[in-house]
Amino acid sequence: MVTFFIRRTIGAALMLFVVSISTFLIFFGLPRLAGATPETFAARYLSRTADAHAQQVFAEKLGFYDPLWLQYWNWIKAVFVGTDYDYGTGIEHCAAPCFGYSFRTNHAVWDDLVDRLPVTVSLTVGASILWLLTGVAVGVLSALRKGSFFDRAAMTGALAGVSLPPYFTGLMFLYFFSYQFDLTAPGGTYVNFTDDPGEWAYSLILPWITLAMLNAAAYARFTRAGMLDTMGEDFIRTARAKGLHERVVVTKHGLRAALTPIITIFGLDVGLLLGGAILTESTFGLKGLGYFAIDAINKQDFPQIMGVTMFAAFFVVVANLIVDMLYAVVDPRVRLS
Length: 337
Known about the structure:
The chain has 337 residues and is mainly alpha-helical. It has helices at 2-33, 38-43, 52-62, 68-81, 109-144, 149-163, 166-180, 197-230, 234-241, 246-274, 278-284, 289-298, 302-330. Helix content is 73%, strand content 0%.
């Protein structure tokens, strides 16, 4: 098990390394191929009144004249140990982890990411609990009552849930429950959990339901398909022949085997959402990582885009690593792969 963990951890680290190189080349290598000069990058940190000499001096200070490999090394080194470049902010040292400073605001990118992380984590945790419990429960009941009215209704609802995008269901929920009946908090409302747990849940109930509808529908279909396959296996018939209670057969033997693929998609879904639930956050005006990413892209703020990209990649890679560990616990055969 230790060897398996070490092997997967090394693989995760290599994946982050590849993502970091790709991200850096996209934002600093490709513009050079397109004709961008070091002064072009430096100008983004300076005011519009800065002359060519000021741009040249600033480009030299930030190392934009260095070879790409050296620029990449300085960027990675800044992430782990910080940097003495002040990026025009007047700050003499950017403490690790340092993703640089925003072109527009001169705020440290890392601080901006950390400020928005609680919103995205809150949205992800609440929605993931809802869709996991709801989707698995509906999928199991549908499999056990195959062909019944409940099965048909549940799968029809699941198909509708998968088909409707979050920006449609989110806007409908806001219109009816927030603005027509005044039952939930309006869009753009967020209260920190530490300030008031009740208001925190009240402000996020609609985003949770909106995001959970999409994923719960998919989980219900996956669980139903897995349970139908599992409940016809020989070991299920053997368990019943031993006289085990049907509840034990379903939960201990059938559901455990059917949940193996669910673990995979759940871990990856959570990892992706921690990188930013873009559509849901934009629909409800929640200032999380997804909203931050869209704003950075629209304003072409390279340091912010690179920071949120690495942030999202980290969550996805770590989620994939945790899934591999859980897989090895659920199915020991995985350790041999």
